[in-house]
């Protein structure tokens, strides 16, 4: 019997200021489509409909609109930055489609037309601060790329740090793609913060880490063991580009290559059997793979690609994935995810030094700690706990 073909839009940039992230996400999504299409258990095949926004935020909405009008797609897997996601949301709303978003973001958003599978601040920033502040101090320097992610993560971090009696030593932003970091390094050296919270992406992040490593060589008080860079978005993709300069710095993610869970071990074994030699995987690849797999299982369970029917399935069931079991809260349409904390090694991998005991339900508006923000500040060495 001929299997039905269901078109799915894949909307990632493989060129532009964060091209490496887009290439990894695209590879993960395409690998999942390949697995679905070779699995006779699915009564359909997925047909990828690709577009290349080139990292230009405004182009995402234009491509999304064209795809939804011309191809019969009802589902878009894609966008990385919040800027590009916000360009696509009005389009999927207008067409009655669903956007499947796989990347960490700054929270403070829910939308019936979006399913959020990346971590939000109570699943990435809070666990990171809870680890870093008691060990290094509560006076960080905040840096970020000059767009929504950088602004909002630093804003949230500032509020949380000040709530615990800490203080921000400085705060600076770089244009997307900028590698002019000398002035930033000079400010950090003068401020002598306890650690640096970096929300830089792409070439900016790499240039900054390399310059910070040089600062650490000339002034050992800026070595990672004393004043680390902590990040919610540094991945194996960044480590491959940066090299040994990243060693010792910290990042949080919902997946690291070699994660010693049964789901990750099985996934990597199956991936190796199909692909042979392959580069280290990152949360970009594995999250996109997981989202497409969940989409396929939800369509199969619903018996239709209709977005409303698929949404009902996704928000009422648990799905197996390389990330572990995934559930999506019907109230917020955000996934519960398990955070991990990694320390970068010189060989381009992360040593996993801490993991959440279980998946943390998303709290995109940080309602769970709102009452604490209204209380008098406790001692400066106290970190905020993750409220489940």
From TrEMBL:
InterPro entries: Leu_Ile_Val-bd, Peripla_BP_I. Pfam families: Peripla_BP_5. Gene3D superfamilies: 3.40.50.2300. GO terms for biological process: amino acid transport. This is Aliphatic amidase expression-regulating protein. It comes from Hartmannibacter diazotrophicus.
